[in-house]
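Dear colleague,

Thank you for sharing your sequence with our group. We've completed the structure prediction you requested, and as agreed, I am returning the results in plain text so they can be pasted directly into your records. Please verify that the sequence below matches your submission; if there's any discrepancy, let me know and we will rerun it promptly.
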Amino acid sequence: MKKFARAKIENLLQKESGFLGLSGIGSDIRALHAHPKSEGTLRTFDVFSYQMAKLILSFLAPLGRLPDAIIFTAGIGENAAYLRKQICAYLKPFILTPHSKTKILVLHTDEELEIARQIAKN
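Please find the predicted structure tokens below.
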């Protein structure tokens, strides 16, 4: 850390980490989707799916029961079926059991419309 200037460290954390840092391909999921079989893409999608599954499971303790539904939405949630499948594979032992009534849903969102509505309110 002492060898790097603050700006270089910020650039590393803000621009060269995340999907780009894991994949070596790019920071946008579309760039990774263009190379679906690459080691970097597979690693990135696996880490992302695992982290999303952990996040979803972290909500169960305060909820105190299994959820009625898990809803995938917005860019990745709506458009990346392969990631939804991978996330659900991690969740399967906990939520997607034969006795579970938890539904997996995909909900379309119009983010631009919602932003416009929020601006119009103010």
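Summary note from our side: The longest helix spans residues 39-58.

Kind regards,
the structure core
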